Amino acid sequence: MKTSQKFYLFCFFMPLVKLAPPNQQHSTLFHETFQQGYEDALFQEDYEDNPQDGLKNKEDNTFVVFNENKVQLQRDDEKLAEGTTNYTKLATCLLCVCLIRSIYCEEMDIESIPVLPKETGYLYARFNKIKKVKVSDFAEIPTLRRIDLTGNAIQEIEDAAFAKLILLEELSLADNRIVKLPVLPPKLTTLNLNNNKIKSRGIKANAFKKLTKLSYLYLAQNALESVPPNLPESLRILHLQFNNITSITDTTFCKGNNQTRYVRQRMDEIRMEGNPVILGKYPNAYICLKTLPVGQYF
């Protein structure tokens, strides 16, 4: 009721103020005085039962009657003062689709990895124009579990770009122009490198040795001259079809030395069709396998 009376008084005196001689300083002073009194009245009326809550809200700038735009701009300026990183991440979510911890940046014609919000778990940036993956792209995102960069134009990956992603389980780099494999994270379970330009010298001798959780390795349609060495015991699926592999040895898949009791228990599938190698020439190379590799035997 008190508020209504003050509002009517305000409406009654407004024409009188307009008819008065122009005095900008006096008019501004009157407006500010009346505005402050009106806000105080509303404040007192709304929080008369619990004035402490009202005081706290007023101090926190959560009680706003006039000048909402001015207050909002002030808060925006404060956020801007924190740095441009937050705005860049906001721009990422305007350009891409952000769903909880998943970022979808597919078919956006982007040329680099976007700045990701913290705690991102899944990144899908397929079918873009990304040419390079840098260490700084994921340096502050250790929570990543899946990265899919299929169908880009990636030619270079800095050696430590994925090394510190200790939670990363799935990495897809298929359909790119990669020639060299970077250091891989330890918990990787799936690695897809199909349809690249990787040669055997582009894979370090111990690239897969310490990946004790790796189950699925796809290296089809590359330029490999030999099967990568030191394949982990955890491997279940190995795709090497349509490379330039010309030969294998007794230790390529097994331990050699006629260890008939050794069996690769988890290996379910090896595909080697489309390679020059004649698999029938190396009968001792499969003695530890539960099934023969798919490929040319004659």
Automatic annotation (TrEMBL):
PROSITE patterns according to UniProt: LRR
Residue intervals passing through the bilayer: none
Pfam families: LRR_6, LRR_8
Record's signal peptide: 1-19
InterPro entries: Leu-rich_rpt, Leu-rich_rpt_typical-subtyp, LRR_dom_sf, Mimecan/Epiphycan/Opticin
Keywords assigned by UniProt, alphabetized: Disulfide bond, Extracellular matrix, Glycoprotein, Growth factor, Leucine-rich repeat, Proteoglycan, Repeat, Secreted, Signal
Superkingdom per UniProt: Eukaryota
Cellular compartments annotated: Secreted, Extracellular space, Extracellular matrix
SMART domains, alphabetized: LRR_TYP (SM00369)
A GO BP annotation: articular cartilage development
One of the record's GO cellular component terms: extracellular matrix
GO MF entry, a single one: growth factor activity
Functional summary from the UniProt entry: Induces bone formation in conjunction with TGF-beta-1 or TGF-beta-2.
UniProt cross-references to PANTHER family, sorted A to Z: EPIPHYCAN-RELATED, MIMECAN
Protein family: Belongs to the small leucine-rich proteoglycan (SLRP) family. SLRP class III subfamily.
Record-given protein name: Mimecan
Organism lineage: Eukaryota, Metazoa, Chordata, Craniata, Vertebrata
Gene encoding the protein: OGN
